[in-house]
Amino acid sequence: MRSIGAGFILILSLYCLILIPPACAAGSKSEVTVLRWLDDPKSPSSGKRSTNVHLLMPKPHDDSEKFALLLLLHGSGQNGADMIELWEDAAQKKRLIVLAPGIEGIPFKNERGNLWPFINMVNEVSRNYPVAPGKIYVAGVSSGNVFIPWLMLMKPGLFEAAAMISSEPFSNWQSELDVCKLSPIFFVHGKKDEQFSYKLLRNRVKILQKRGVFAEWLTDDEAGHGVLPEWPALISEWFLKEKPAPMACFAEEIKKSHS
User: Fold this and answer.
1) Nearest-angstrom CA–CA distance, 211 and 79
2) By CB atoms within 10 Å of each CB, which of 52, 156, 179, 257 scores lowest?
3) How confident is the model at residue 245 (pLDDT cuts 50, 70, 90)?
4) How far apart are CA 208 and CA 212, in angstroms?
């Protein structure tokens, strides 16, 4: 068992994804590390939480290669391993390190507070792995999206962009979110989602757009709730493409967050 940094302890050596038979087969293109996150006692989150974290690292082309970093938050009934399985092919092709924490030990019920473990994880990985500056993203699936707006509010500019997949149409977007702190958002949703209404989500996203937030859509006429196999690659492409400059107030919020 070895320490990766202040917050991570390696509890399982590198292994290959279970989808590649046999386990640890020769020629695997990515490696997954399972880490145990022990929250920093000095952080605002009180320091008494721990959780398993899955970290997918594409095989580098050379020693100098830098990667984008994706914090990937799962929904109810899922775990970090599920997210790694979902994103493995896209991560290798689009050159993304994927950080997929489990939710045990992190208070999912309070989306506005106690989110520092996620931010601390991102900072720790950025210090210890070859992460490209300015290429940090966040994505959520289903109920995992509840954290995304508040993560952007807590640390404006930390995440270059966000993707919200099969997201609940949260009712507080109109009145509570400071749009000057929001990065571009990609909404990915099936029009036949029976759990979270596409039409209601669309109407509420229009409010964000009118307030100046850069938001785009990826939809499927026949998809229900969940993630289609082709979506991870399309989302990864969207993360990496050029986007319009943020609102003028966004730069001011970044300055405040670093002061």
Assistant:
1) 34
2) 257
3) confident
4) 7
**248: phi then psi, degrees, rounded to nearest 5:** -60, -35
Structure tokens belonging to residue 199: 């039409």
Pairing label, strands 131-141, 161-165: parallel
- The pLDDT assigned to 136 comes to 98
Q: How far is CA 32 from CA 19, 78, 158, in A?
A: 12, 17, 24
pTM of the predicted structure, to 2 decimals: 0.84
Biggest CA–CA distance in the chain, Å, is 53
**Are residues 33 and 55 in contact, defined by beta-carbon separation less than 8 angstroms?**
yes
CA nearest neighbour of 232 among 168, 182, 166: 166
How far is the C-alpha of 19 from the C-alpha of 135, rounded, in Å?
Answer: 27
* Nearest CA-CA partner of 154 in 177, 132, 134: 177
Buried-state track 7-39, b at ≥16 Cβ within 10 A, e below 16: bbeeeeeeebbeeeeeeeeeebebbbbbbbbbb
**Pairing between β-strand 161-165 and β-strand 215-220 as defined by DSSP bridges:** unpaired
- Interhelix angle 231-240/80-94, rounded to 10 degrees, is 60
- Dump pLDDT digits (tens) for 12-40: 322 222 222 223 333 446 788 887 776 55
How much is the pLDDT for 106?
54
Identify which of 126, 201, 116 has the alpha carbon closest to the alpha carbon of residue 151.
116
Is residue 149 within 8 Å of residue 215, measured between CB atoms?
no
Structural domains in the chain? 8-258 (3.40.50.1820)
